[in-house]
Amino acid sequence: MTHVPLVEVTRGANGVDTVECVHYGSVAVVDAQGRLRYAAGDPSFLTFSRSTLKPFQALPFVEGDGVAHFGLTQSELALLCASHSGESFHVDGVKRLLSKAGCDEHHLQCGCHVPTFYSATGKRAPADLKPTPLHHNCSGKHAGFLAYCVQHGLPLDSYLDPDHPLQRRIRARVGDVVGVDGDTLPLGIDGCSAPNYALPLDKLAAAYARLAASDNGAFSTLFAAMTQQPEMVSGTARNDLAFMRMAPGDWVAKIGADGVQTIGVRCAGLGIAIKVVDGNMRALYTAAVAVLKALGLVDSPEDTGLAPWAAPVVKNARGTRTGVVRPVVELKRVA
Could you tell me the pTM of the whole model? Predict the structure, then answer.
């Protein structure tokens, strides 16, 4: 199968719009038993999981009793799964997490970038801002990596090496979750320099169905942290925060760079994975809202907290309307 149109972007004037861009991709909707229920395009498309992998990268830490060992709060645990915005409460949380492990920001190997808060809110970053690794959206995940290494007496300086014992353990657990040999998963290096893996889109959806459905063990612990502390996982004006606030304690949402979105829906026993093949994030957000509507999980997203992504109007630098981002995804029932 091939990718299909998910989102169109129009441009026009005098009330007449013409399609200017078409963003193609695929969708897989899978139940908790791993059965493909709905699809668009190629539901088995091999997709680098990017930051949607974070809850599963945290499994060894949680399963190794790291939460109790370091006395982590639920908000600190949520940071292990976060692509946070680098807001003060995120940075402070990562500092606490590192301190509990006897580490500091100098141990982080994620690099640094301007906090996502500014692009998400449209605010201008202060001229004197000096980002540190604490502001990196993945710093919580890296702090969790370091804590695991401290607890288990593993080297800190090589914690991102794919052959490091932690990364081997993560690879094995990811394989377990999706039902394949972890060593056969295509390996890549993520934007934060951590190992990342490509998965068939339906396998990624199944992982989120499992995350949402589990009522005990590490999956349940991570689901609770993410859904009860969504502001730690995401940030102000971010779509994942809006998704999780739409259905508190029921929807778990996680974006990944270059056009990946995952959502687990506990009440429906479903996992959703979306890939916009050109990596366009604007299109991704609109496609995700459209999929939720198509599944009957939200009736009128334009009247909810999802309105900014439902069918956003495109404006130019003067504030003049130039077009609209509109979903065209068509889900087909499979089983």
Answer: 0.97
Are the C-beta atoms of 74 and 225 separated by less than 8 Å? yes
Q: Which CATH number is 4-333 given? A: 3.40.710
Chain segment 219-233, per-residue pLDDT in tens = 999 999 999 999 999
327 vs 133: CA distance, rounded Å = 36
Separation CA 27–CA 286 (nearest Å) = 13
Residue 311 tokens read as: 């069918």
Residue 163 and residue 248: Cα distance in Å, rounded?
38
Q: Nearest to residue 173, comparing CAs of 57, 2, 92?
A: 57
Closest CA to 291 of 242, 251, 264, 330: 330
Give the largest CA-CA distance in the chain: 67
Q: How close are the terminal C-alpha atoms of the chain, in Å?
A: 17
Domain boundaries of the chain, sorted by first residue: 4-333
Which residues fall within 8 angstroms of residue 195, CB to CB, at 6 or more apart? 160, 162, 167, 170, 171, 187, 188, 189
Structure tokens at 133: 């690794």
Q: Which residue type is seen at 183?
A: D
